[in-house]
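Notes from the pairing session

We agreed to fold both candidates in a single pass and log them together. This is the raw record for the first candidate, unedited. Please don't reformat it; downstream parsing expects exactly this layout.

Candidate A
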Amino acid sequence: MENKIGIDLGGSHIAIGVIDKNGKILEKTEKRLKGIITTEVKKVIEETIFETVEKYRKEYEIEEIGIAIPGTVNKTEVIKSVNLGLKNYKIVEILNKKINIPIKIKNDAKSAAIAESKFGALKGYNRVLFLTLGTGIGGAVIVNNKLLDTGDLPGCEIGHMVIEKDGLECNCGRKGCFEKYASMKAFKNNLRKALGYDENFSGKELLALIKNTKKEDKNYKIINKIKQEYIEYLSIGLANLINIFEPEVIGIGGSFVYFEDVLLDDLKNEIISKNMLFNKRKEINIQTAVLGNEAGIIGAVL
């Protein structure tokens, strides 16, 4: 039976997996990109893909490769990926010099949204709004099982919707972008800074700290303040999108999924209790991605 290779290029990692026709990952490899200087990123991406694909081809029959990439892509090229520092990167052409297999590329958030709609938390819904909250914020809109078609450019750059006039400068060159305030990277960095930790203090450790800090602890108020600020910014952007698209369901992926227990209920309450929606409702349907960080790999081959 022929399989496909799915590749997910994240802002901080590259994951490569072999996927069967049922969307099941048969084998997976990951490599961190964090800390690699921008000029070396292309080299690391290419070498990792070449080596891993070569390894998998010895073990499996591979018919196609799909790559999920953050940022603006067309059928063969990364036009711009601000979180990876890539611009006009002819990735398909470069990879095809050594890999003689059809290669398709797509925006990572859209890939994840397709995977969740076919195999995951969003299955069975006709109108879907999907956000990936990670290093940045990506987005996708699906109507009647089809991605919103915006022509040659992928659109749905949800993370670069301005929510703060003259706000923090974004990697895209604009100021006040949604992802500078409501990405998981922003949340984690703000927490680390407020608590006096450096970036070596992992997301897993931050989550444990949030869960285990009691009201009488000195850090409780600090954590609560940072968390509340994050929820406020996230709810502003999300409410704007709900008012525009009126989805049946909102899907959230990325590393937000791991923090669901400490963030999701507060997010729902913020949107409903503060009457942020044009069309009022008593509850809001938000589902976290069940495929987790594997949604990009699976969606890349769909």
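Candidate B (folded immediately after A)
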Amino acid sequence: MPTLDDLIALALAAGREIMAVRAAGFDAQTKDDGSLVTIADQRAEGIIEAGLAQLAPGIPMLGEEAVAAGRIADCSGKFFCVDPLDGTRGFAKGGDEFTVNIAFVEDGAPTMGVVYAPATGELYAGEPGKALAGKCHPQTAQLLAPLTPIHVSATLPLQPRIVASDFSGRNERTGAFIKALDGATTHASSSIKFCRVAEGAADLYPRFGDISEWDAAAAHAILKAAGGGVMLLDGSPLRYGGKNGDFLIHGFVAYSGEAAKQAALTAL
């Protein structure tokens, strides 16, 4: 079985490849589902898939680009859930808000995860009993200092801090949720929103609308390791493995602790 350090090393290697593609220049193409893909997505997933096959032969990998190519992994037991480049649209526009996401899932629950933002160097990782954060050099992906432990906020402030994306975070349901809680909003990119809750910088991350499992699994594992959790909009736990016949999550709320969860359920 791969260790958390193994998954971190793979995420950093994928990040280096993404930044190399950016430096060399690239074109974006549109997939059948209307989303964008670049050579950086494909090369990064290739690095991760090859690395996981070496580290854990026999454990399938559910990858965004593999699924797009029609290669669907068996997700009934243990599997890896990978988005090699979460935020391709922003990456293609020259922005910095994109991440590499690698998760290990057991019986529908993400138990190990790494989220790495190559352009900013932000790195988050988690496994049961341990959640970590650190900063890497964006060009070399070398750690600038040892990873440090992170934990969710121990208390819920009177005005909960709610993190949302600039794009999907501005829909009507998100606005109503924030208003119901009299929340203070902050913004973050892609999977980093979960990590803001995990490190105690936010209390809730609501998402109304569909998102793919590989966009959430790695950061979910980190948040869980930091003491938080993620629930579906009906309050039930978020499970992975395409139980609906697809790999879509139809909305969720990530929360820092029990008080935040109950406040979110009331607002919902």
